[in-house]
Amino acid sequence: MAFVATRYAARTVGRNLRRTVLSIVGIAIGCVLALFMESLNRGKGELIARAGASGGVGHLRVVPEGWRERRDVRLRLADWQADLAAARAEPGVVLATSRARAQVLLAMGTHVVPVEMVGVEPALEPKTFRYVQAMAEGRYLRDGDPGGVVVGRAIADRLSAGVDDEIVATAMGKGGEIQSAMFRIVGIVATGSEDADATICQVARPDLERFLGVPGAGEVTIIVSDYRRIDAIRAALLPKLAPGDDVVTLSDLTPEIEGHLAQDAATARVISAIILLIVLLGVASAQLAAVLERRREFAVLSALGMSGTRMVRLIVEEALMLGVAGALVALAIGLPLVWRFARGGLDFGRYLGGSYSFAGVLLEPVIYGDFGWWIAPYVFVVSIAATTVASLYPAWYAARTDPAVALRVAQ
Amino acid sequence: MAGRASPEWYRNCLWYSQMRGRAVSWCAAVAMAGAASAAVGAAIPQAPPRPPDVEALLTRIDDLYRSTSSIARMEILVTGPRSTRSLRLRAWTRGEEEALIVIEAPPREEGTATLRVGDNLWNYLPRIARTIRVPPSMMLGSWMGTDFTNDDLVKESSLRKDFASRIDRRSDDPAGWWVALDVKPGVVGRWARIEMLVSDDLLPIEERHFDRRGRLARTMTFDEIKTLGGRRLPAHLTLTPTDTPNQRTELRYLDVRFDVPLPDDTFSLSRLERRP
Amino acid sequence: MPGFTMSRIAWRNLWRNRRRTALALAAIGLSVALVLVYDGLLRWESDWLLQTITGPMLGHAQVHAPGWRKTRDLDKTLRHASALVAAVEDAPDVADATARVYAPALAAKGEEGFAVVVIGVDVERESRPTRLLAGVSVPDPGRRVLMGRQLAEQMGVRPGDEIALVGQGVDGSLANDLFTVAALVETAVDLVNRQAVVMPIDEAQQFFVMPDEAHEIVVYGRDAERAAALAEGLRARPALAGLDVLDWRALAPAMVSLVDLVQAAWIVVLLLVLIAAAAGVANTMLMATFERTHEFGMLLALGTSPSRIVGMILVESMALGLIGALTGTAIGGALVAWAHHTGIDYAALTGGGPSSLSVFGMNWSLRIYPRLALVDVTRAVLAVLATSVVASAWPAARAARLQPARALRD
Fold first, then answer.
1. Hey, which residues 89-108 in chain B have their CB within 8 Å of chain C?
2. I need a surface site. Which of A66, A183, C216, C314 has the fewest CB within 10 A?
3. In which element (H, E) is residue C185 found?
């Protein structure tokens, strides 16, 4: 007898094609919307992590002993070359580059500007620090072209200097001796944010070494392929480093990013809940409408002897079938859409003047949707849950109907 | 005001980085004043003006500021757009590493002292009876709220070694010679070119400093020739940046003694806190 | 245009089939309610963002001496600051104005000196809610200062400790004195927490020898969104001639991008939400109308003209849409009003998320107070109303073309 219910359900579905199609389309649209929203939510997490990666902070950073307590730019790694090699060899790491920093005073004539000068690897740095990918004037640093410096526009203005000008850099070098060196401005960066501009001053790391007389790198910045594996990679890398050296994560370096990730995830959950509610509502009401119109049909079935339980099962099975069909349609429509979203991203740049600064870190306002194995299960769960819940009231209602009453009313 | 990215306040504390300069080698300070000072002994004016030997001239200038130790009293006047500030100081130096400066006037700041030993810099503030160590980050920068910079004072800048020089032309009023100095390639320094006016006594009258872009950045004038510490020097120095003509720094030497023996405990914290 | 009779029939139809009507009303009403709840959250986020950005540090607009912003030179001050503040407060649309002093200095508890910023403020005004020192109690007068928490940690300073402050006065003189740290502050501004020593402005003016002078005047209007107009108005006033007057957007362009980005992102989501709601309503109306084919067939057989049927359906769905939308507005509005009154603790809502957040050097606490603007309601109601009418138009038109016999058989 169970089989009869199923066959009946199947035939119902086939019989009133328009109603069925309408149902499935309705469910599918709801699911696609929910899917898109979820993809967007997950993509925002990637956005935030990317902020860290491309803003120069990196996903992970190898730092010298004692750096956690006092963030002194003069500290140097115990063995930076070994650390760099270990980082590069670690699976999951896309990129690792070394840096050294110093507090310097730049001078041009009588104009003086204090900055933090960063010694970098010119070939790799643009991949970790987006804003030196494009120069407003001049060009970026090049290997084998010593003595060049790249500064932010605000610094160049305060120095009253431009590309090809020679400036004097003064710093406390080895043994506390004051050291000076000449650098030639090869490029000027304009980030669009004056505050950010005032912090950009880069030279090739060997140049900084020579300038200060202090050898070595103070940090190794690491970019990983999947930001969710940051902690795992950190744990794997730590024992492979020179003794004393430590690894800090994006969250350690910019705790506010962690907070924003959490807040964003939380907001996303609230939004998802609202959208799912709306979808559920839509699906449920449509199903209800359909079922309500079938009162006579149910009355007839009841009069013919179908038990209440069977009728409930009938309706629920119909709902399940619709749910599955709806999910399949949703996937058919949604998968290519989300794929395009994941590849091409949603560019908010049009609404903004370029990019915006977040927690001291500059950000590209493109959100890439997330595309992964989670999609299919998500769609199925949403669809089936919606249709099943939607069928509960009609099922109960249909089972309860007094066939005589129902048949009597000329509906 | 983006927070994280701009801890600029302390860096912009020019005054404090200026304080650091007080502890700078006084040999160089004197050298500034006597950057083109006369040969040892009085210079004898020649009747027919003959251009001096540039190499010899610059050698004398470079050598003049060297001393193993010194004690000096000087006056500094800083004129700014809003105010004029006058200080009288007493300064002890030894080598390039040690310096002690005590303010004698104005009374409000009397007794304030700065001590530099190696890479450490302390200030003693008598009014609150405290000694405070200046953090390294504030130790760079210009000197004493003046327009002098560390480059001017710390570095063993050598006019002879760092610049290619030649006599440019004769000046009749004031009587002297214009010397053109162009920086040699590979030299670290702010000035691409210096034009110096030297009197017939081979004492500096005026110096013009041109930045690396060839723009006149500042002008120094020298006058009030006196004999100080056995050397004949202009005692009064005025430094005026071109960009801010209503702002200038003046240095006046009241007396100087070179190569004097100094007690061992001169450059110590206890000495710092002891009122002179 | 359906006649009066048709309208009455339409109305009666609604009442006759209570369940269907109730269902449609529920679908429409709840959709509207949910959209309004979302709107409420969105508005709150926008308000919160603006308030957090402009409240503590930026204000709606600021006044500076020309050139101060670039180099922050101590001596580029606003003279006769108190008169200026009074002049600013006299201007229309200005709710409040207060002056500040910023000066670099060296602070030391023992022998170790630390680079700090001394910020002189009107402590009473700035300790009002949403301002810089919100919630902080005003220290007693007499060389008592507040210190940023992180700075204090770095220096090893606790409340009650004495510190030396050394700085340079505007006249170039050496400013130095001993101060007592009355309390540590954790403000919404990272810079303050990490580097600042906060003192009453008159004490700062005395310390740095700048009587009745200030570096900045912070101006608050009535609406952060109209800051540009506020700044424009101030610039025109004779008392402020020659001074730099900028609204918060010009002062912190990075913030503008953040606000715009957040709003853009949420509007995209709003579109999704509206589409979802519309889809739900459409689905319901379509379904409901299609199910009545039999009924329409009957009417057609009885001689009703097709246009009358279409008209009837349209009237029904308009009525449904209106009633549903209004009900939904009432529910949604009530929810938002209640949430606005009590506030929702974000951390609790999201299951242990952060209770505060540091972005852009500012700490934001997460308590939600949604609110609605008229445009939100109008937009939601219109969208849903339009959807329900359009959604029933198609089946209605289809129904009108039916052959009665076939329809009856359905």
1. 106, 108
2. A66
3. strand C174-185
Cα pseudo-dihedral A166, A172, A173, A178, rounded to 10:
70
What's B269's domain CATH number? 2.50.20.10
Mean per-residue pLDDT, C85-106: 92
pLDDT in tens, C300-314: 888 888 888 788 878
User: What is the per-residue pLDDT across B212-237, written as a single tens digit (0 to 9) for each?
Assistant: 999 999 998 988 888 888 888 888 98
Q: Are residues A108 and A243 in the same domain?
A: yes
Is residue C366 very low, low, confident or very high in pLDDT (cuts 50, 70, 90)?
A: low
Residue B223 belongs to a domain: yes
Q: Which residue, among B106, B68, B88, has the nearest Cα to B257 in the 3D structure?
A: B68
C-beta atoms of A351 and C356 within 8 A: no
Residues in chain C within 8 Å Cβ distance of B7: 194-195
pLDDT of residue A186: 96
Under an 8 A CB cutoff, do A109 and B215 touch?
Answer: yes
**pLDDT tens digits for B181-216?**
999 998 888 889 999 998 888 888 899 999 999 999
Residue B2 lies in a domain: no
- The minimum CA-CA distance between C331 and chain A, rounded to whole Å, is 15
- pLDDT of C362 higher than 50: no
Long-range contacts of A215-218 (CB under 8 A, 24+ apart): A215/A76, A216/A76, A216/A77, A216/A80, A216/A100, A217/A76, A217/A77, A217/A80, A217/A84, A217/A98, A217/A99, A217/A100, A217/A119, A218/A63, A218/A64, A218/A73, A218/A74, A218/A75, A218/A76, A218/A77, A218/A99, A218/A100, A218/A101
In a domain, B259, yes or no: yes
Distance CA(A296)–CA(C321), nearest Å, equals 27
Angle at C360 between CA C357 and CA C364, to 5 degrees: 30
DSSP A132-178: GSS-SEE----TT-TTEEEEEHHHHHHHT--TT-EEEEEEE-GGG-E
Query: Is B13's pLDDT higher than 80?
Result: no
Please indicate whether residue B265 or residue C277 has the higher confidence score (pLDDT): B265
Tell me, yes or no, whether A223 and A126 share the same domain.
yes
Nearest chain C residue (CA) to A262: C353
A73/A184 same-domain check: yes
* C106 closest CB neighbour out of B78, B109, B134: B134
Whether A320 and A384 have beta carbons less than 8 Å apart is answered as yes
pLDDT at residue B41 greater than cutoff 60? no
pLDDT band at A164 (very low <50, low <70, confident <90, very high): very high
B6 inside 8 A of chain C by CB? yes
Residues B147/B150/B154/B157 CA torsion (nearest 10 deg): -80
| A356 and A222 co-located in one domain | no
A251, C342 in Cβ contact below 8 A? Answer: no
Q: Which domain holds residue B44?
A: 11-273
ipTM field = 0.72
Give contacts of B 237-266 with C, CB under 8 A: none
In the structure encoding, which two tokens stand for residue A221, read together? Answer: 């910045």
At B107-132, the pLDDT tens digits run 888 888 888 887 778 888 888 888 98
The Cα A87–Cα A242 span in angstroms is 11
Tokens 């008159």 belong to C202
User: Phi/psi of residue B163, each to 5°?
Assistant: -125, 145
**SS3 for C280?**
helix
Q: Are both A289 and A387 inside the same structural domain?
A: yes
> CB A171 to CB B140 under 8 A?
yes
B25: in domain: yes
Q: Which of A253, A275, A309 is the last residue of a domain?
A: A253
> Domain end: A215, A236, A253, which one?
A253
Which pLDDT score, from 0 to 100, does residue B137 have? 66
Domain containing residue A298: 2-52+258-408
Count of the separate structural domains present in chain A:
2
